[in-house]
């Protein structure tokens, strides 16, 4: 059984051990599905480059569709990473988003969906980067899984140490604002990995499109954890 199948089997057989990442009411809370590919011609490069304009655009979309949160991004080939040289390389531009973004209000609480421990954490303090980031380590029977939480408040890192036990449904942080989250509209970048490849406090959330198939082997779809009803996602 490959690791994706192992994860699916564990979650199916242990539903009582899987909890929320953010507070929402299944079937009631509405999520707006953002599209940040080239198909989105409404959001201009100039809008994306201006954090205030980008933030207002996101807020207007959520308000206009009566949604508390926005969501999307797993393996999405995005254009918006042109806003930061962090994603530019000589070989190939990094534009493939590897996790799921949950867009909402600064201060929104973030919870550990599974029991585990703090693997590592740091403030990736660069324009366009994660800002404050926490990586948790989970032992799911014979399967090792890591979960990453980016764009948090700096306060979220207070009191942490590597190896600190974390219970499922325990609050681990909150959405940061643009002044501390890498200069993004408030949101959570949530990502799963089977192998951290020796990294600590950081793991790429954006990759090269040419490596998509390889990346998907190591990075499962976070939807298996989030379990947001499709009927509540507004497209």
Q: Main traits of this protein?
A:
Glucose Permease (Domain IIA), Peptidoglycan DD-metalloendopeptidase family protein, 17% helix, 5 helices, alpha+beta, Dup_hybrid_motif, 3-stranded antiparallel beta sheet, single chain, globular, metalloendopeptidase activity, 235 residues
Helix-strand blueprint:
Layout: H1 3-13, E1 31-33, H2 45-49, H3 51-64, E2 69-72, E3 76-77, E4 94-97, E5 100-103, E6 109-111, E7 116-124, E8 131-140, E9 143-150, E10 165-166, E11 171-174, E12 187-193, E13 206-208, H4 212-218, H5 223-226, E14 233-234
Parallel strand pairs: 1-2, 1-14
Antiparallel strand pairs: 2-5, 3-4, 4-13, 5-12, 6-11, 7-8, 7-10, 8-9, 9-12
InterPro entries: Cell_wall_metabolism_enzyme, Dup_hybrid_motif, M23ase_b-sheet_dom
Domain M23ase beta-sheet core: 96-194
Protein name: Peptidoglycan DD-metalloendopeptidase family protein
Relevant CATH superfamily: Glucose Permease (Domain IIA)
The radius of gyration is 17 Å
Q: What helical percentage do the residues reach?
A: 10-25%
Shape: globular
The SSE string, one letter per element, is HEHHEEEEEEEEEEEEHHE
Number of domains: 1
CATH architectural label:
Distorted Sandwich
Runs in which pLDDT lies below 50 for 5 or more consecutive residues are none
**CATH class placement:** Mainly Beta
Estimated share of beta-strand residues: 25-35%
CATH topology category name: Glucose Permease (Domain IIA)
- Please state the structural category: alpha+beta
**Strand count:** 14
Largest beta sheet, briefly? 9 strands, mixed
Q: Can you give the mean pLDDT? A: 95
């Amino acid at each position: 059984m490959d690791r994706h199948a192992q994860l699916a089997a564990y979650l199916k057989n242990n539903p009582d051990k899987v909890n929320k990442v953010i507070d929402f009411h299944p079937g009631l809370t509405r999520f707006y599905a953002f599209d940040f590919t080239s198909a989105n011609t409404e959001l201009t490069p100039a809008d994306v480059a201006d954090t205030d304009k980008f933030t207002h655009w996101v807020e207007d979309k959520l308000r206009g569709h009566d949604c508390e949160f926005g969501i999307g991004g797993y393996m999405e080939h995005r254009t918006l990473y042109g806003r930061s040289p962090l994603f530019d390389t000589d070989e190939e531009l990094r534009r493939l988003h590897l996790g799921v973004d949950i867009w909402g209000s600064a201060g929104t609480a973030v919870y550990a969906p599974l029991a585990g421990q703090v693997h590592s954490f740091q403030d990736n303090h660069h324009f366009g980067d994660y800002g404050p980031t926490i990586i948790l380590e989970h032992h799911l029977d014979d399967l090792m899984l890591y979960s990453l939480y980016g764009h948090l408040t700096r306060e979220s890192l207070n009191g942490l140490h590597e190896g600190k036990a974390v219970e499922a449904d325990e609050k681990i942080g909150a959405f940061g604002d643009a002044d501390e989250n890498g200069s993004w509209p408030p949101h959570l970048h949530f990502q799963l990995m089977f192998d951290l490849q020796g990294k600590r406090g950081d793991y790429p959330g954006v990759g090269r499109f040419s490596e998509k198939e390889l990346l998907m082997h190591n990075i499962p779809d976070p939807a298996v954890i989030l379990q947001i009803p499709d009927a509540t996602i507004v497209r």
